[in-house]
């Protein structure tokens, strides 16, 4: 599959970063969007809060899979097996998302979480590492839908230099190897650049393994 690999202009902690621009055609983007709408009908979007400060995140979220990512003031970042407001189990990860995982992850086990990030035009996500998963050998697979976004990728320390990329609807990113622990964030969403999502905005789906497969 054609993709952009980490190369000389990326630092070594960005090894394992693979970008597949335009991997998903318009029909697959629509089937993913429809699957997202199905998940949101049973697991409504919520705003997680920052640990300690209780500051509400600008990105709205929901999840599919055994585990959902959540954060609140008192207990902070974690995975939970039930929706924080409805107390229901998360819906299963829909087939269109699973198909993307099996085509690019290069990992033998199924994902256990599909985190749905919903960005309105003004939402952003500060530079952070993803380290709430027990299985760091599995990659994170990210699918972008809707408006373009400016994505920033750094190294494994907060001070390491960063590079910025545009992520467009249908792009798929795979973060494995050293890139799995790279700092990253979304600086801004470019409103009005896609017509996929009614009312505009951007949706990012991240597929993740949360627990370590047994016997490893
Ligand atoms: C680099 N989401 O949910 S996806 C997140 O577009 C998150 O919503 C962003 O960061 C978004 O945690 C970025 C791309 C991404 C996802 C996971 C990574 C980049 C990553 C894990 C390690 C390094
Ligand atoms: Fe992240």
CATH superfamily: Alpha-ketoglutarate-dependent dioxygenase AlkB-like
CATH architecture: Sandwich
Distance N terminus to C terminus? Answer: 29 Å
- What portion of residues belong to β-strands? 25-35%
Q: What best-fitting shape do the alpha-carbon axes yield?
A: globular
Strand tally: 13
Mean pLDDT across residues? 94
Q: What letter string, H or E per element, gives the SSE order?
A: EEHEEEHEEEEEEEE
Bound small molecules, by name, code or SMILES, are: N-(carboxycarbonyl)-S-(naphthalen-2-ylmethyl)-L-cysteine, fe (iii) ion
Explain this structure.
With 216 residues, this protein is an alpha+beta fold. The chain has a single domain (3-208), classed as Sandwich (Jelly Rolls), CATH 2.60.120.590. The chain is built from two helices and 13 strands; from the N terminus they run ββαβββαββββββββ. The protein starts with a strand and ends in an 8-residue tail after the last strand. The mean pLDDT is 94. Bound molecules: N-(carboxycarbonyl)-S-(naphthalen-2-ylmethyl)-L-cysteine and fe (iii) ion. Fe (iii) ion binds next to loops.
């Amino acid at each position: 599959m054609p993709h952009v690999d980490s190369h000389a202009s990326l630092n070594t902690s960005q090894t394992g970063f693979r970008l597949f621009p335009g991997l998903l055609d318009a029909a697959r983007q629509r089937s993913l969007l429809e699957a997202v709408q199905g998940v949101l009908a049973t697991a409504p979007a919520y705003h997680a809060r920052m640990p300690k400060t209780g500051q509400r995140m600008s990105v709205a979220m929901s999840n599919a899979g055994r585990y959902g990512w959540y954060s609140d003031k008192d207990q902070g970042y974690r995975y939970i097996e039930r929706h924080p407001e409805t107390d229901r189990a998360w819906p299963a990860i829909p087939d269109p998302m699973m198909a993307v995982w099996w085509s690019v992850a290069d990992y033998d086990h199924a994902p256990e979480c599909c985190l749905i990030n919903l960005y309105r035009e003004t939402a952003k996500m500060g530079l952070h590492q993803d380290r709430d998963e027990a299985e760091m050998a599995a990659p994170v697979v990210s699918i972008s839908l809707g408006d373009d976004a400016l994505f920033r990728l750094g190294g494994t320390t907060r001070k390491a230099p960063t590079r910025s990329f545009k992520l467009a609807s249908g792009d798929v990113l795979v973060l494995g190897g050293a890139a799995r622990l790279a700092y990253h964030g979304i600086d801004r969403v470019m409103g009005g650049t896609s017509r996929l999502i009614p009312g505009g905005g951007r949706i990012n789906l991240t597929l993740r393994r949360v627990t370590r497969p047994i016997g490893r």
